[in-house]
């Protein structure tokens, strides 16, 4: 697949506190000291300088500051990062610049500064408008702060606002989730991301779950929430363009789409993942992940990196094929059979004839006359079991 653009992902690992379900590369830092902040941004920019060559000549399509909590950075640091990324890559038209923000009061005050720094899209980690749910999730903010932060983002001039909601939180009933949806819709963001709480090994929630202390909704309850979300958001004009993402027409996330379409992404920072473009040595591309150890990452700033600093997975054809199907089927557009065939030498049926017949027969997959594939409504609800057919 030819593509001359690049998306840049910048990971900021600091969080006010570490939530008990979180498995990201994060460290607790209630307030970042100026030195700590500058040291990390220096390391990021040094990594950008070292690695930009592998993406030389590509045009910048998107920049995403995620985490962690990037809104813990001061606007001047965010401006520094944005400026340097723009100096490194020419822009491919207008560039989507997203910053993930937590709805704390400190971050709320910084929103105008982030706008002035060049951020044009805010992804607000609301999670829920219920204080009980937020407390059970171990989140640092409360619902009232989320409401204030959303209003402040609009006041600061952000006309691209995404709101994160969580479902299947401990003790969360369908009615409570419906109230979250109603409030989200009433606020009217351009984009909504909806994540089912997942229990990651090694987290405090995994321990509590093993002891039977979490009281999570069962599978039927989760399916009811998902159905309700699709129905309510569709009625309010949001299309489910990817399994976890809903948008008003024209407001689909540019950066996130790069992952589903397997386009190159340069990931900077602790634990950041990069997707290198295909090359002669790796015709199906390479996925790299930076060390998740902050001290080791900072240590890379002044020296050449060693193999231990970054894991690299060179895709073979079979892994890349499975990945292409898995990612494309997550999207409403589905899998383009002709494009798949161009890359892998045969349409999906050439590799998974029996699986496709079975899934179509069970009403989980739809196959267009040209061989394009997409999940049916039922397939979306049972997507995990569909994906297992393509590994
Ligand atoms: S705020 Fe987000 S990134 Fe930070 S610890 Fe909580 S879930 Fe993890």
Structure description:
The two termini are 21 Å apart. Helix content is 41%, strand content 21%. 40% of the residues are buried. It is of the alpha/beta class and 391 residues long. Strands 9-10-8-7-6-5-4-1-11 form a nine-stranded mixed β-sheet, sandwiched between helices. It has a three-stranded antiparallel β-sheet with strand order 12-13-14, with no helix packed on it. A two-stranded parallel ribbon has the order 2-3. Helix 1 packs parallel to helix 2 (75-88) and helix 3 runs parallel beside helix 5 (143-155). It folds into two domains: 5-259, Aldolase class I (TIM Barrel), CATH 3.20.20.70; 321-390, Orthogonal Bundle (Arc Repressor Mutant, subunit A). The structure holds iron/sulfur cluster.
Task: Give the tags.
391 residues, alpha/beta, TIM Barrel, Arc Repressor Mutant, subunit A, 9-stranded mixed sheet, 15 helices, 16 strands, globular
């Amino acid at each position: 697949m030819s593509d001359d653009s690049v998306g840049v992902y910048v990971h900021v690992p600091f969080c006010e506190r570490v939530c008990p379900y979180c498995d990201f590369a994060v460290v607790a830092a209630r307030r970042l000291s100026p030195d700590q902040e500058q040291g990390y941004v220096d390391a990021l920019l040094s990594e950008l300088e070292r690695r930009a060559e592998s993406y030389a000549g590509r045009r910048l399509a998107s920049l995403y500051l995620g985490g962690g909590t990037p809104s813990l950075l001061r606007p001047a640091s965010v401006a520094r990062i944005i400026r340097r990324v723009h100096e490194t890559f020419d822009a491919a038209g207008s560039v989507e610049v997203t910053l993930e923000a937590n709805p704390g009061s400190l971050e709320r005050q910084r929103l105008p500064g982030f706008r002035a720094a060049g951020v044009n899209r805010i992804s607000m980690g609301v999670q829920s408008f219920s204080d009980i749910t937020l407390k059970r999730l171990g989140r640092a903010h409360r619902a009232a702060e989320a409401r204030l932060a959303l209003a402040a983002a609009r006041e600061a001039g952000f006309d691209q606002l995404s709101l994160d909601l969580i479902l299947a939180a401990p003790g969360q009933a369908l009615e409570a989730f419906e109230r979250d949806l109603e409030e989200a819709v009433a606020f009217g963001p351009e984009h909504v991301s909806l994540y089912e709480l997942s229990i990651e090994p090694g987290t405090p929630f995994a321990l509590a779950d093993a002891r039977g202390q979490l009281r999570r909704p069962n599978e039927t309850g989760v399916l009811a929430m998902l159905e309700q979300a699709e129905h309510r958001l569709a009625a309010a004009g949001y299309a489910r363009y990817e399994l976890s993402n809903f948008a008003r027409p024209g407001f689909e996330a540019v950066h996130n789409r790069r992952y589903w379409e397997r386009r190159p992404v340069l990931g900077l920072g602790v634990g950041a993942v990069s997707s290198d473009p295909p090359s002669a040595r790796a015709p199906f591309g390479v996925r790299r992940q930076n060390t998740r150890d902050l001290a080791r990452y900072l240590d890379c700033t002044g020296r050449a990196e060693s193999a231990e600093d970054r894991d690299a997975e060179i895709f073979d054809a079979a892994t890349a094929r499975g990945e292409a199907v898995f990612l494309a089927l997550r999207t409403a557009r589905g899998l383009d059979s002709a494009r798949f065939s161009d890359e892998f030498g045969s349409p999906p049926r050439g590799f998974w004839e029996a699986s496709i017949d079975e899934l179509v027969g069970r009403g989980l997959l739809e196959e267009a006359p040209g061989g394009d594939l997409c999940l049916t409504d039922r397939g979306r609800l049972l997507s995990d079991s569909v994906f297992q057919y393509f590994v």
